[in-house]
Amino acid sequence: MTTTAPRRRHLDRVRWWTYLLLVLATVACLFPLYWMFIVATTDTATATRMPPEVVPGGNFLHLAGLVMETVPFVQALLNSLAVATAIGIGQAVLCSLAGFAFAKLRFPGRNALFLVVVLTMTVPTQLSVIPQYLIMSELGWVDTLQALIVPGLASAFGIFWMRQHISATISDELMQAARIDGASTGQVFWRIAFPIVRPAAFVLGLFGFVTAWNDFLWPFIVLKSPERYTAQIAIKALQNSYDVDLGLAMSGSFLATVPLVVLFVLVGRRMVAGILEGAFKG
């Protein structure tokens, strides 16, 4: 009894500090979103007022209406949804296929090719903009959504992620048993491998979705027509060259952030479970 009581008090102190740090981290993460909403419900002067406002105003619907009048924002949200969904699904499937090939298939140059894939992660994204734009121009895809979708359907990080996960979760004995039963390589992947690594593929698809939704540089370069703008380019179009209406810009930013918040609320628990499963198995 004398030894367990101090140990229990020590655990209570650790738990108290842990919860305090978690609360502070949560507040630090949510405050920018809350401040964005405050400015989006008031005006530009609120962002520079001292002391700052902490209570939302009642101007959000008016500013949201101005956003819709200034740019085709609903169409931009739909474009972002289409692009991000296609990229998320594409990365989940194609990176799983490539990861399966690198992890479980034997073919000449496998290790060298995988090394090349990994090395591409060290190349800054900005260096690929010019050759990528030239390729899109040759294909006639400039100012089209497929110019955003096709280059993002697979990623070096996604291939590396799925290769490591498949290597750790799928045993060679399981594949040999499937081969003995007469399963082809495609059947082994779709009926055995992919159902096992589906949580990791789901998390990778979510990462791809969020990255594509928030992407600005490449859409800003390749898109020209307002009806093909994505959400991030539409937000940029709300700002002119000489003055920035922060209330208008924050309203557009908040409208573009809401779908991501809804997505996280719907699938956040599954995403965390997929990450933890990959961490424990890896």
From TrEMBL:
Stored InterPro entries: MetI-like, MetI-like_sf
One cellular component term from this protein's GO annotations in UniProt: plasma membrane
Keyword Ribosomal protein attached: no
GO annotation, biological process: transmembrane transport
Domain named ABC transmembrane type-1: residues: 77-267
Regions that span the bilayer: 16-37, 76-100, 112-135, 141-161, 246-267
Coiled coil: none
Keyword annotations of the record: Cell membrane, Membrane, Transmembrane, Transmembrane helix, Transport
Bilayer topology annotation: Multi-pass membrane protein
Localization in the cell: Cell membrane
Superkingdom per UniProt: Bacteria
Keyword Membrane found: yes
Protein family: Belongs to the binding-protein-dependent transport system permease family.
Stored PANTHER family: ABC TRANSPORTER PERMEASE PROTEIN MG189-RELATED (PTHR43744:SF12), ABC TRANSPORTER PERMEASE PROTEIN MG189-RELATED-RELATED (PTHR43744)
Protein name in UniProt: Carbohydrate ABC transporter membrane protein 2, CUT1 family
Record organism: Lentzea xinjiangensis
